[in-house]
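Figure 6 in text form: structure in, sequence out.
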C-alpha cells in the first residue's frame, strides 16, 4: 500500500508539473484536484472513454487497443489583449467564451506540439473536418481549412476564403529534416479572384548559420486587380527566390534573391536593423523594353507594340528609412541605357514640336477636340502663373530627363507612412503624356506605359522643355470642360493670364490635382476648401519668396480676398502671411 504522505507527494509533483507546463493553478484535496479559472461544464468517465466539456469546448478521449483517439469539437480561439483580460470566475459568463486561462493552456499545448512534432508525426494521425479562423470582429471566417489530415511527415488540407479569395485550393506540405516542400492545386477556380493560379509549388529550407530559403514556382499566375491593371495580367513562368539571413542584431535579404517572370528579372537585397529601427532595400530590374511593354495587357498607345531595340535596360532603386517613421528616408533611382539601342520606337512624338489637335482623353464622354498652338518665342512660359505652376508641380523640371527620383522617394515615403497609395510622383512631362495619350486609369501598368512614353519623348525625340511646358499649360484640366490656363483665367476671373495677381495665380495652381471638385466646393463656400486653399497659398508663397519670384511690397499688399467672376468673393480666414514677410528679410 502506498502511504498517504507518498500519495500527497505524488499529487504535489503532479500539480507542479501541470503548473509548469500549462500555467494553471492546481489545488489538491483528498477527493481530487481542480484547475482554477476553468469551469468544467460536464465530466463523464465510462470504462475506456472520457467525455469532457470545458466552457464551450467538447473533448472526447477513447482508449482502444494500440490507439489513443482524441476528438475536439467547437473549439474557438480568439486573441484577447492583456488589458481586456477578465478575472471574473463566474461560470455563467465563462460559458459564453473561452477564458484567457484556457487560451493560455491551448497556446502552451500548441508550443509543446511544435517541439514534439517529429514524434507526434511518427506515431499519430490527426484528422480535422473543418477549422475556421475569424477576424477580430468574429463576424465571418477569414480562413477556412477543411479535410485536414496530419500524418507522418505530411499535411494535406483544402483551403477556402484565404485572403478573400473565393477559389478553393488543395495544399500538400511535406516535412524533411531541414526542408519543407509545398504544392498548391486549384480545385475550384473563381475568375473574380485578384490572384489566380492552377498549380504552384515550392520549398522552405533552413540552412546553416540561420539562413532561410523560400522558393516558389508557378507556370502561370493571373493578377486580376484594378490597382495592377484594368484587365487581367498574366505572369508566365513565375520564379521567386528569397534568401533570408538572420543575425543577432538584424535580418538581411541575401543579394541572390530574385523574382523572374515573362523574361523580366528582378534582383533584390535588403536589411532591417532591430535596435536602430533602420530598414533598407535595393531592387535591380533588368529587361528588354519589349518585354516590359508586353506586360501591359491594355496598351492604350497601340503603335508602341511595334517598339524594337537591341540590348537591355537596367533600373536600380535604393531606399532606406526608419520603420517607425518612414518620412526619415533616403531614396535613389538610377537607370542605365548604355547597352540599349532603339531600332524602332513604334510611336512618333515629333508632332509635338508643331501645332496639332487632339481629342481630350480626360472626359471620354465628351471627347472634346483641343487645338494646341505653338508660340513664336518663349513668352507663353514667362507668365507668373506658368512659373507658379511649374514650381508647384515640378520644381526640378529643368533638371531631370522626364523622371524625378527625388519626388519618387517623397511619394514612397508618404505612401509607407500612410500605409496606402496616398501620393504620386508624376513630373510635368509625365502629366502631359497622361493627358495626351493615356486618360485617367490609375494602375501599375498604366504608370509603366506612362514612364516609357515620357522617356521616349524627352530622351529619344528630345522634345524641348519649353515646348513641353507650353503644351502642358494648354491641355491641363482646371475645371469641368475648362482646359488650359487661358480658359481658366477667363472662367474664374474674366481676365487674361497677364492680368492675374499673385493670389489668383496661386488659387489656379491649387485646382490642378482636384479639377472636378474645386468649383463645387467654391460655390458651396466650403470651410474645408477655405482651410486647404489657405494652407496651399502659404506653402507656395514660401517657395516664391525663397526663389525671389515675388517682391516684399507684393507680399504685404496681397490681402486675403479673392474675387471670382459670377461666383463672388472668397475671404481666406485662415491665411497668415506675417511670418513670410520676416522670411523675406532673411532670404534677401
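Output sequence:
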Amino acid at each position: 500500500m502506498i502511504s498517504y504522505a507518498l500519495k500527497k507527494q505524488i499529487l504535489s509533483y503532479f500539480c507542479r508539473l501541470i503548473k509548469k507546463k500549462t500555467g494553471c493553478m492546481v489545488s489538491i484535496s483528498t477527493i481530487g484536484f481542480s484547475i482554477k479559472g476553468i469551469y468544467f461544464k460536464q465530466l463523464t468517465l465510462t470504462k475506456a472513454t472520457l467525455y469532457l466539456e470545458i466552457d464551450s469546448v467538447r473533448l472526447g478521449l477513447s482508449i482502444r487497443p494500440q490507439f489513443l483517439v482524441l476528438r475536439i469539437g467547437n473549439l474557438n480561439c480568439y486573441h484577447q489583449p492583456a488589458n481586456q483580460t477578465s478575472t471574473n470566475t463566474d461560470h455563467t459568463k465563462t460559458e459564453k467564451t473561452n477564458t484567457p486561462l484556457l487560451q493560455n493552456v491551448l497556446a502552451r499545448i500548441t508550443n509543446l506540439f511544435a517541439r514534439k512534432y517529429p514524434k507526434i508525426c511518427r506515431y499519430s494521425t490527426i484528422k480535422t473536418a473543418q477549422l475556421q479562423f475569424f477576424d477580430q470582429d468574429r463576424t465571418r471566417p477569414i480562413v477556412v481549412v477543411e479535410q485536414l489530415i496530419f500524418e507522418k511527415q505530411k499535411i494535406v488540407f483544402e483551403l477556402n476564403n484565404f485572403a478573400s479569395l473565393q477559389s478553393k485550393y488543395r495544399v500538400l506540405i511535406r516535412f524533411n529534416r531541414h526542408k519543407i516542400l509545398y504544392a498548391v492545386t486549384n480545385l475550384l477556380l473563381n475568375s473574380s479572384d485578384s490572384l489566380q493560379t492552377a498549380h504552384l509549388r515550392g520549398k522552405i529550407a533552413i540552412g546553416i548559420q540561420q539562413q532561410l530559403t523560400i522558393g516558389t514556382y508557378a507556370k502561370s499566375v493571373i493578377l486580376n486587380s484594378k490597382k495592377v491593371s484594368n484587365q487581367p495580367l498574366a505572369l508566365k513562368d513565375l520564379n521567386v527566390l528569397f534568401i533570408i539571413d538572420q543575425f543577432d542584431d538584424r535580418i538581411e535579404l541575401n543579394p541572390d534573391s530574385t523574382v523572374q517572370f515573362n523574361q523580366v528579372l528582378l534582383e533584390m537585397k535588403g536589411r532591417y536593423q532591430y535596435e536602430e529601427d533602420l530598414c533598407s532595400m535595393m531592387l535591380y530590374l533588368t529587361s528588354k523594353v519589349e518585354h516590359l511593354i508586353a506586360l501591359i495587357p491594355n496598351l492604350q498607345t497601340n503603335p508602341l507594340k511595334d517598339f524594337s531595340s537591341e540590348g537591355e535596360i537596367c533600373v536600380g532603386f535604393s531606399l532606406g528609412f526608419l520603420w517607425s517613421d518612414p518620412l526619415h528616408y533616403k531614396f535613389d533611382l538610377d537607370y542605365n541605357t548604355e547597352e540599349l539601342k532603339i531600332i524602332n520606337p513604334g510611336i512618333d512624338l515629333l508632332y509635338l514640336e508643331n501645332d496639332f489637335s487632339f481629342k481630350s482623353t480626360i472626359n471620354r464622354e465628351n471627347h472634346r477636340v483641343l487645338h494646341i498652338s505653338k508660340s513664336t518665342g518663349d513668352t507663353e512660359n514667362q507668365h507668373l502663373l506658368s512659373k507658379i505652376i511649374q514650381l508647384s508641380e515640378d520644381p526640378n523640371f529643368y533638371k531631370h530627363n522626364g523622371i524625378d527620383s527625388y519626388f519618387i522617394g517623397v511619394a514612397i515615403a508618404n505612401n509607407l507612412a500612410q500605409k496606402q497609395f496616398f501620393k504620386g510622383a508624376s513630373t510635368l512631362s509625365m502629366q502631359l503624356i497622361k493627358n495626351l495619350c493615356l486618360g485617367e486609369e490609375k494602375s501599375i501598368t498604366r504608370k509603366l506605359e506612362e514612364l516609357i512614353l515620357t522617356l521616349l519623348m524627352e530622351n529619344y525625340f528630345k522634345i524641348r522643355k519649353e515646348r513641353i511646358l507650353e503644351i502642358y499649360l494648354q491641355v491641363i484640366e482646371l475645371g469641368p470642360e475648362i482646359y488650359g490656363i487661358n480658359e481658366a483665367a477667363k472662367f474664374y476671373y474674366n481676365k487674361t493670364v497677364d492680368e492675374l495677381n499673385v493670389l489668383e495665380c496661386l488659387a489656379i495652381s491649387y485646382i490642378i490635382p482636384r479639377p472636378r471638385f474645386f468649383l463645387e466646393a467654391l460655390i458651396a463656400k466650403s470651410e474645408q476648401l477655405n482651410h486647404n486653399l489657405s494652407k496651399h497659398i502659404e506653402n507656395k508663397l514660401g517657395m516664391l519668396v525663397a526663389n525671389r519670384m515675388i517682391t516684399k511690397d507684393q507680399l504685404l499688399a496681397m490681402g486675403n480676398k479673392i474675387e471670382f467672376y459670377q461666383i463672388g468673393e472668397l475671404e481666406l480666414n485662415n491665411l497668415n502671411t506675417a511670418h513670410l514677410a520676416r522670411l523675406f528679410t532673411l532670404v534677401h
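Caption detail: The longest strand covers residues 233-246.
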